[in-house]
Every structure is written in structure tokens, then in C-alpha cells.
Purple acid phosphatase
Amino acid sequence: MASLKYKPMNFIFHVFYLIFIFSAHSSTAELKRLLQPAKPDGIVRFLVIGDWGRGGSYNQSNVALQMGETGEKLNIDFVISTGDNFYDNGLLGLDDSAFQDSFTNIYNASSLQKPWYTVLGNHDYRGDVEAQLSPMLRALDKRWVCMRSFVVNAEIVEFLFVDTTPFVDKYFVQPNKHVYDWRGVLPRQRYLNNLLKEVDVALKESTAKWKIVIGHHPIKSAGHHRNTIELEKQLLPILHANEVDLYVNGHDHCLEHISSVESKIQFMTSGGGSKAWKGDVNHLDPEELKFYYDGQGFMSVDISEAELRVVFYDVSGNVLHHWKTYKEALYFAS
């Protein structure tokens, strides 16, 4: 039935697809900026999920159910996806039924009918990247917002979404049997240089009280993939220089909180959207590793002018870990 639904739209898809390929996502374009209006109380609430798209299997449906219940309790404004949205090899094209089978039909709770701000993961790059980036997917599900790198301004907080897969050397020099769709990325070094410059400028120009950066790959992790060396060398110094509050990622199939001993940045992994890796943990200094869970789940974030609060949940909706920090109020003499 899903394939029948797509067929009448094929011609429109293909025409728009050609326009999209030749007009979007160049390596020199400025970061697109989106506005996410805050509620009247000024508080921003959202969920974070990563590494999820498996047609409901590996507890994906159960995690989605708990996300719906938590989203309703918190009255969330949106959802963030940290990538690896469709396993194992991204979307095959605009008419791939995996979009409905792994997204629309799974995250169907009323509380989750909000914008989904989404980055690409390495598995997404193994498919038709331009299809996953295409705004034509919004004709199928209006929640879907996916770009390589972009900024979301939610007034008191600004979110910077960074395309991290092109930073990782092994996908280029040792791809093994995998084929990656590098359209829009090559020449690679120019793409990365431009992206790093755009990230630095966007963070410097931000006047938001809080700054959060989202990428698929971890900068710091005790999980299977451990630290991403390329991001430590190239992206992390920019985050330090611009006083970023949180770096949020997926890639490691776990839930994790690491504190930096070098700065105020907190590293949060939310990659437990479906298949998890039990027992796959590397021990870190307890001064850094505040929390690690090798199972499925997700996280929520509440942000006000004065406070940011993070909560991690398991597949049953149980609270596993919570953390909060504060911003000092600034007072000026009259």
C-alpha cells in the first residue's frame, strides 16, 4: 500500500529533486537559519533521540511510545534527531517507504507532531543523501526538517546543527564495502574549511543566553566509537572559544553524560533510539564520566533564562540520570 501511495507523486518528486540537487547544499552556502518561537512562559522544552530508524525493531517502537508519553507530560516544543535516521543504508530515494515505516508510522503520538530538527549520520550518507535532505519529504510528513548544517533560534537558546560525517577520515580512506554519497561535500577540504568558518561566525554572532551544538559523531565518548579525533582537533577549539554549553550527539548506541575538565562544555550522547550495544563501554576518569547507560532510551531538555536541565530515560520511561546548570543573572546599576 505504501508504494501505491507514492506512485502518483513520482513525477513531482523527480522534477523537484532535480531542481533541489542543482540549487541546494553547496559547500559555500551560508548556514540556513530557522526560528523556533518560544512559549509565552519563555521555557523551551524538547526531546533528543538518535540512531533509530529500524522499522520499529530493536525496541524502536517502545522508545517511541515512551517519548510520546514524556513529550505530553513536558508539553515539548520540538524533537532533535542526532542522526543515523534510516538503517542500514539511509534512504534509497524520495519514494523509499522506509521514511514512513521508520519515522511517520513509529513516532505517531500526538505530542510528537512537532518539528523534528535532524542531522545526517554516517549510515544516512550510505544512501541517497539528497533525498533525505529534500524538502519534498515534508509533503509526506510536515515535521521533517533535515539539512546538512543549520541554525535554529529559539530566542533564549540557539542550536547549531553540524554535519560531522565528512570530518571522519576513515569514511574516505577505508570505506570497506560501503559506498558513501558525497555529492555536495567534495572537494572535501573546502567543504570542511567553509563549514568550520560558518560555525565559528554563527557562534560568535549569537546573542542567545545558551548555545547548544548538535552533531552525529561524539567529540568525547566512553562508548564503542570513543572520541572522534577529527572533531577534537577541528571543532572542539571553536566550541571552547565560543563558550558553548552543550554538545549533543548520537553514533554510540547508548546514553551518556561527560563533563569537560577543560571548559564548561557538557557532552551528551543520545544514541539509544533502537539497537543498543550492551557492555560496550570504555572506562573514563570519573571526574569526566558522569553517567553511562548501555541500553535504549532518549533524553529531554528544559531551558529557561536561568536554568538548563537534562534528563535521560530508558525504554520504559524510567529516569536514569538528571543534571542541571544555571546562568548567572546580569544586573546593571541604574
